[in-house]
Design brief:
7-stranded mixed beta sheet, binds alpha-D-galactopyranose, 11 helices, 4-stranded antiparallel beta sheet
């Protein structure tokens, strides 16, 4: 990928720039909890976005996307937003840095990635973190702290891409650490690294290849439901809600809002249970919680789809320790914790059965927990 980017950069802009990378993420547990002030438990993966960047001494940004074979050029004022949706991620990052009093001048960039798009692995957060980190290095002497870099990506989603997302994806992409998961408290923003090498198990993502599009999607509606319930309870976020509190207002809210909030309240407890179980090497408990999350996301939060439920059923049949839909939902991947000795059979079975029903095999990505956004060094 690096050589391809070098070549494209040289062809379009002549010469060479500095290379930066940022990864996608997976999440062991804690879904739709980030924007509710709850806990998440993600890690960065070995799939990433890579960009070669060089200041060009003008007030224009010129960017070439290798994967889309598309070129965009824009200025740095609010009115200069590019038409292409992919370029709005980069424009948004520039604008959000400027809004915070940071510095961005014109630059040239060529970029590519191997984070599968629309698979729930946060390709857009990877792109945002890659550019936020690069522009911090190139124009701001790395004076913007890492949490702010994550927030710059998140605000880009909110203000330029129409997704009212939480902080998990950008946080994981910026803070990722090889062989470690991170438990983030999305209210206090305190986090802890947990060494992650599940003994006797493999972690694998199974991609349904059903595309999900979060903009204008039911994702924003889920968030609105949670905020309505929190408001009704007189609290800031569902982090402070209990099932007793929710049951006390059950008749005042819609059934839909009730079940959305119920999932969130249960899920925030599950993250803590899973962290403890992981430390104790109790993978059965980790796995049971993953199945519970899937059931909740499917039935109460309603962000699953037929294909993902089928992947979950196959995992259960194959004796997989834990399996669940991962990320925002509406397509994408399941994350699976599988005993070493069951792994080959699970992969063969899931490919065969899914193919028999949907006419194509799911894609398989073994999880390799990796480092976060950084300047690329060979
Ligand atoms: C998407 C969002 C995240 C988070 C997850 C669900 O990935 O970008 O902020 O809400 O969905 O856990």
């Amino acid at each position: 990928m690096k050589q391809k980017i070098n070549k494209a950069f040289d062809e379009h802009f002549s010469g060479a720039g500095t290379i930066y990378v940022a990864p996608g993420r997976f999440n062991l547990i804690g879904e739709h909890t980030d924007y509710n002030g709850g806990f998440v438990f993600p890690g960065a993966i070995d799939k990433l976005m890579m960009a070669e960047i060089r200041p060009n001494g003008t007030d224009k940004v010129r960017v070439y996307s290798l994967d889309l074979n598309d070129y965009a050029e824009f200025g740095l004022n609010e009115a200069d937003a590019p038409a292409q949706s992919w370029a709005r991620y980069i424009f948004g990052v520039c604008r959000e840095i400027l809004k915070r009093g940071g510095k961005v001048e014109g630059f040239d960039a060529a970029f590519a990635g191997n984070v599968p798009l629309g698979a729930g692995l946060s390709s857009s957060a990877a792109l945002e973190s890659c550019f936020a980190n690069a522009l911090n290095d190139l124009f701001n002497d790395n004076s913007i702290d890492k949490f702010e870099l994550a927030r710059i990506g998140q605000s880009t989603e909110h203000n330029y891409c129409g997704v009212n997302c939480g902080i998990m994806d950008q946080f994981a992409s910026v803070f990722g650490k090889k062989d470690h998961l991170m438990r983030l408290d999305c209210r206090s923003m305190e986090f802890e690294y947990f060494p992650f090498k599940p003994e006797g198990h493999k972690l694998v993502l199974v991609d349904s290849v059903v595309k999900h599009e979060l903009a204008d999607s039911p994702y924003n509606k889920r968030r609105a439901s949670c905020e309505r319930v929190a408001k009704r309870l007189g609290i800031e976020t569902l982090r402070d809600a209990t099932m007793e509190m929710l049951d006390a207002i059950k008749t005042d809210i819609t059934a839909e809002d009730y079940f959305r909030a119920k999932f969130v309240i249960e899920e925030k407890e599950r993250v803590l249970t899973v962290c403890d179980a992981l430390v104790a090497g109790d993978y059965d408990t980790v796995g049971r919680c993953m199945y519970e999350t899937h059931a909740g996301l499917s039935k109460d939060y309603e962000v699953s789809c037929e294909e993902l439920d089928y992947l979950n059923d196959i995992a259960k049949e194959c004796g997989v320790t834990g399996s669940r839909i991962m990320g925002g939902g509406f397509g994408g991947c399941t994350v699976n914790l599988v005993k070493d000795e069951l792994y080959d059979n699970f992969i063969a079975t899931v490919k065969e059965k899914f193919n028999a029903r949907y006419g194509h095999e799911p894609k398989i990505y073994p999880v390799i927990v990796s480092d976060g956004a950084r300047k690329y060094e060979e």
